Each structure stands twice: as structure tokens, then as C-alpha cells.
Amino acid sequence: MRSTLALPITAVVAIATTALVPTGASAHGTKATPTAIGYGGAVTTVDATATAVGLDVLRRGGNAVDAAVAAAATLGVTEPFSAGIGGGGFFVYYDAKRRTVSTIDGRESGPATMTERTFIDPADGLPYDFPEARVSGLSAGTPGTLATWEAATRKWGSRSLGSLLQPAAAVADRGFAVDATFNQQVTDNLAAFAQFSSTRDLYLPGGAPPAVGSVQRNPDLADTYRLIARKGTGVFYRGAVGADIVRTVQNPPVATDPAQPWAYPIRPGDLRLSDLRNYQVRYPAPTKSDYRGLTVYGMSTPSSGGVAVSEALNILERTKLSQADTIKALHWYAEASALSFADRNRYVGAYTPDSILKKLVSDSWAGQRACQINPSRALTKPVAPGDINATGCSPAAVGGPVEQGQSTTNLTVSDKWGNVVEYTLTIEQTGGNAMVVPGRGFLLNNELTDFNFTGTQGTAPDPNLPGPNKRPRSSMSPTVVLKDGKPFLALGSPGGATIITTVLQILLNRVDLGMTLPQAMAAPRASQRNTAGIQAEPAFHARYGPQLEALGHTFGPDVAELGAATAIEFTRHGGLIATAEPARRGGGAAAVVKPSR
Q: Which H helix or E strand runs over 410?
């Protein structure tokens, strides 16, 4: 029998929402400490309230899984446009007692009736425009987040799921102060949110985004959490909440008088209660590769993250980057990223055979791909994928770049026993499919737009076309790195397809370029995803652009920020360095149970 939190929920939340917050500041979105050093366990997320809730669970004897689930549930309140029970994700767990790494695939799945032509307009035979596909019932997959929480707590937790939902429910009831990021995310979704009465009522009070400093409450979500806590996840997957999800997808709650016009018809989807009833999480073996004496574990399919990160690291390992100057290291980083993305796009999908996955993360494959890199001249992008049936340095003749979604969130947790959770969860686009389930308080995902709407690989089969019950390819890359069988580093990030390059660049910074973890986190980022131009933050472009351009690299338009990572480094004698973003997405929050003095 699992115990529950010892104090009344009001006491827990009062502690949780003030633990990291300076006097007079709001819990949500404050410039909380992005780095914390100490012992006894750590939590790092993008949000101060969620971090404080997780930390409180650790301090009251909960383990890393308990704290991760409680923090994730809180992020569903305070970061509702990035994650929540209407979405899915990938959970990586290191068991300190057994020294093993396990994973949970809680990715959303398509309806049983889904076909390769789901995103093809029958009127003209052409793929839907992305906004039309996204803001519709067509894009919503069966959510896997709640099933992930239940599976994790049952397998590895020490608290009941119901008790771990209570602090988040209290935050939803009490509310939190709206910050500039929250306000901007609503503003960016103004037209989409205005199309649905349930979304407009929650996030457009008076027809406008909630003002910075105002209090955002969500009593419907609080009630939903408490209903699940009382009745179990069956009420979501087989009962009243599930029925409301299906009703929302099949009959979108379109406002009769939207404040802003929408350029597309709001199309219904065909998600059914049987799809929710039949949903199951999966427990795939993690990807595994060696890098400079470290063992790197990641997420396998339907995520492409573990495979792509491993392949790129294997390519990078073929040169001594620690002895190279920064520009040479970044040149190799960009080239390895482009090559791994070419292979990911060509070969990786939900049903990629294990034999191909193992080849893609092998040293021999890395040799076949690395032989194309010229140390003094960039490859012309996009590069072709490798020929999976060849043994020499010969690329295949098909393949092309493909992009995917934008927004996600990530958290990293460890406990005093040495267990570690790296968890990336999402509803896909910022704001998901823009539909709040009426009376339930959470947004639905648009995860099915992660499928390719039509073939992208020329005459070769595309591994990421839609299909019945199929899970779309993801780039989520929760990663746990071991040294001599014990944790050295755990990290992950949001950012759609840029997740892969963000995780890869942080590893490059920390392992090869001699940066501390906080420095590796704060360093300017760039992302080469096998596109003609590198996508970069302005600081990266200004600092390194001219020298990389001299090597033949090109840059696309700069972006304000890439990723919003969290990470924990494990030092000698049980020490911890917990790190979040100092600035990106408004800055994250890291905390340890016993801070170093």
C-alpha cells in the first residue's frame, strides 16, 4: 500500500508555491535560481511552482518518480500550452539499485480508422495546410500522459498517483500570476483560441489574453485531477472524461461568434472511445551508445531522438574535438547533425525494424557517414541519407528534409537513493490543437501533425506516414548518461526537431569543449537539421557565423531561442549540479534538497 503525502494539501501547496520564490514575487515565471548545487535529490523544470512541488515531494520522502509525476502534473497547470493530460511523452528512468535504464513510451496514437490520406484534402487531392490540419479534430491523438504517470508510479513510485495529483489541483484552484511568456503564448494563439468557446472562456477573458500579473485559475482542471485521483485513470480512458474528449474531437466546440476570423474550416476527427480504451503505454529498450568512455541512453521509436543523438555522437567521436578549436568542433557538430537527420528522416518511424535501428547507432555506420565530412569545407545541404545496405562511403539516392512541431516541456529529477528521471512531455504545437475539452480544463494535442502528410522520401517508402493506431515520429530526446555504470548526466529539452540538436550541443559543450554544465546550458545554440541554412540564435550567429561561413556553412533567419533544457550532473560523493535555462523561455528553476553552503 503506497503512502500519501503527510501534510494536508493546502500546507503542501503553500510550501511548494513559496519555496523558490523571492518575497513579493509570483511563483510562476519568476527568475528562480537556474542552478542549484547540493545533495539529497534535485528537481529542475522550466517553472518555479512545478520545481517547488517536486522538491516538496522529495523532502517528504518521495522518490524521483513521485516527484517527477507531481511536477509534471503541475506543469499541466502552469505550462498548459506545452504539456498536460491531453498530450503524451517519453519517460526515462535510471534505477540505482539495479543500475538499469528503462523507458516508457507514452506517445499519442492515431485512431484505428486513420489512413495515409488522413491529411489529404479530398476536394483537391492536396495535403492540408498545416494550420488547417492543426486546428481541427484530425490532429488529436489518443493522449498517453496520464497512462505514463500511472505506469511509472506503479512500477517505480512510492506514492499513489491520486496523492501526486493533489498539489497540482490545488495550484489550479488557487491560480498563479501570469507572466510575459504565458501572455505571449496566448497572444500567438489568439485567432486559433478564439474559434472555440471552451478555450476562449478559459484563456481569453474579456476577449483578450490574460494580462501580465493577473491571476490565472483553472477550477475545471482542478476538478478533473481530483476526479481522476478518486476514481482512477479509467474515468479518463473508459469513462466520462474520455467521452468528453471524443465529443470534442468529433464535434469541435466552435464558437458561434469568434472574435477573430479563421481562414479554414474546423474539421472534425474520428477519435473514438474505443481508441482511448485500447491505449497502452509501451516499454521499449532504450537506445544505447558509447561516447568517450560514457554510456549514453536515450529514447527509442517512435521517438527518433535516441537514434539521432547516438548516431551524431558516434560520428563526432571519430575526431578528437577536445583538442580542436571551437570552430572546428562546431563544424563537425553541424555536419554530424545533418547526416544523422538525413538518416532519421529516411529510416526512422514507429515501425522501424530493430535491425535498422541497431545499425544506425553502430560505430561501423558512423564510419560510413563520417567519411563524407571534409574538415575544411561544409557539405552541401540537404545531404542524402546513407544506403542502409551498403558497407562503403556511398549515400543513397533518395531522401529529403522534414520539419515538425514547436513546443514541449522537460524535467529532470533525482532522489537521495540515486534514482533518476528524465521526462519530456508535450501537446505538440504551443497550444496543441487549440481545443480545451469543455468542463475539463485541458487542451488537446495536435500530435498527429507530426506524421508526414504525404511521402517525403522520393520513390522510397516514408516511415512516418499516418496509419491505424500508429504513433507519429517524435524528436523528444530524454537522455541519461552513465560513467562507470553510475549517472554522470541527465538532460532533455523541448523544441520540436531542434530537441535533438539542443541535447547534442549541450553534450558537446560539456564533454568536449570543457564547459561546466551551467555554461553548457547557457551557451548560444544553433541547429543544423539537414536544411540549406543553419538555424541559430543571434548570439551564436554573431560569435561564430563568419568563421563557419568561411567553411561553406550558410545560415537561415535567426531565431530568438532554441530549446528550454533541464539537466542534472552527478558529482563525486553524491553531489548534484541541477541546472535550468538562465534566460530561455523566461528562465527555469532548479533546486536541491540539501543545498551546499
A: strand 407-415
Amino acid 458: pLDDT: 85
Q: What is the pLDDT of residue 401?
A: 52
36 bridge partner residues: 578
Whole-number Å distance between alpha carbons of 589 and 506: 18
Structure confidence at residue 402 (pLDDT): 52
Which pTM does this prediction carry? 0.94
Which residue among the candidates 408, 412, 426, 430 is catalytic per the annotation? 408
Q: Please indicate whether residue 430 is annotated as part of the active site.
A: no
HSE toward the beta carbon, residue 59, CA cutoff 13 A: 17
Packing angle between helix 326-347 and helix 363-370, nearest 10 degrees? 110
Q: How far apart are CA 574 and CA 74, in angstroms?
A: 28
Q: Which amino acid is at 342?
A: A
What are the tens digits of pLDDT across the range 312-326?
999 999 998 888 899
Note whether 135 and 192 are within 8 A (CB). yes
User: In residues, how long is the chain?
Assistant: 597
Question: Whose CA is closest to 76, among 60, 104, 53?
Answer: 53
The DSSP H or E segment spanning 222 is: helix 219-231
pLDDT under 70: residue ranges of the chain = 1-31, 396-407, 597
